[in-house]
Amino acid sequence: MNDLYARHRRVLPDWLALYYDQPLEITHGEGRHVWDAQGNKYLDFFGGILTTMTAHALPEVTKAVSEQAGRIIHSSTLYLNRPMVELAERIAHLSAIPDARVFFTTSGTEANDTALLLATAHRRSNTILAMRNSYHGRSFSAVGITGNRGWSPTSLSPLQTLYVHGGVRTRGPYASLDDSAFIEACVEDLKDLLGHTRPPAALIAEPVQGVGGFTSPPDGLYAAFREVLNAYGILWIADEVQTGWGRTGDHFWGWQAHDRNGPPDIVTFAKGIGNGMSIGGVVARSEIMNCLDANSISTFGGTQVTMAAGLANLSHLLEHDLQGNARRVGGLLIERLRAAAAQDSGVREVRGRGLMIGIELTRPGTDEADPDRAAAVLEAARAGGLLIGKGGGHSTSALRVAPPLSLTVAEAEEGAAILESALRSTQ
Ligand code: PLP
């Protein structure tokens, strides 16, 4: 155990997730690569945790942050803040939510907490619908609506949460259904739940489950849910913390794969927008956002230096059509990985869209999850110079591939080759 690891173990919580038998200390990055303290170079196929959206050390972001830091880092939202207003204007426009208001937080957890605060106040109900296998953050209330109970089985939530089918499909009774039968079964389940409870405030869902192993429900699931929700006056909150900003390739927001009729009532975001700077937030139409009458702030939400990073990062993303790049390069990558998986009886499926690709590992010839092999593949990939992720909670048999959206074709091929050999060496 190296000295830093020993010190980490002494002073930080045991439950703080740490990858690898001999954890890495990353000291710097550039483009799609990072380097460790020993000078080893890695191709980064996890982009922080989907936080490095454009590229490591993107010059425009570095310049914007250092220039802003040289002027002022934070003056609080008690005063007018130009970069915050500008980023809010851009996100409000991109959200397609009519008369949208944006509230900035410092994390995805706090964004979801705020969405719960808004929805419960607006609908006067503390019952929330959430998806099985979901992950929404680590605060008391976010853990309380997280369906991936493996992640925090001891939590006692202040909310009443009802879990809806639609999140997990790889195993269990729903696995054999085709897309329309699956949607129908999930809608029936939702109706059945609503018939036995007082009206919930909202349904919160990730368009593609992130920590749950990049599992996508069939397109159209949430549009079908929405018809039912509308009939009961229940709000729909899309948690776009992992899926926003073009990551899924075909769409700018993950919800767009599901619902052509218009945006959700509330969208939460975080991760990639700051390219590693801590920006989270909530977008909702003013009628919902303004249902809180308290005079409130989030001390570090909207701080100038993070907003400057967000503006520079978003401009780069849009000007270079990184969503289109995610679609094209992600399409090639998934094909390569599917071809490799066809030779491997322990790969149950390679799924995903854009640069959000999940590889589900099961013990050969069975439906049984194989988290040990996932851990072994992670180690083997690292030894080959590639960093990838895996699912959390009870989804640790899924590998997660989510490079920065500027990934080149050559890098996709290089990473796929390393991953193929990591899969071969662990069969
Ligand atoms: N929502 C989703 C979908 C997430 O994946 C995460 C984190 O992984 C969160 C919320 C919580 O975000 P944060 O870790 O920034 O608090």
Automatic annotation (TrEMBL):
Keywords: Aminotransferase, Pyridoxal phosphate, Transferase. Its EC number is 2.6.1.44. Its cofactor is pyridoxal 5'-phosphate. The keyword Cell wall biogenesis/degradation does not apply. InterPro entries: Aminotrans_3, PyrdxlP-dep_Trfase, PyrdxlP-dep_Trfase_major, PyrdxlP-dep_Trfase_small. One of its GO terms (molecular function) is transaminase activity. It comes from the Bacteria. It holds the Pfam family Aminotran_3. Homotetramer. Belongs to the class-III pyridoxal-phosphate-dependent aminotransferase family. This is alanine--glyoxylate transaminase. It comes from Streptomyces bobili.
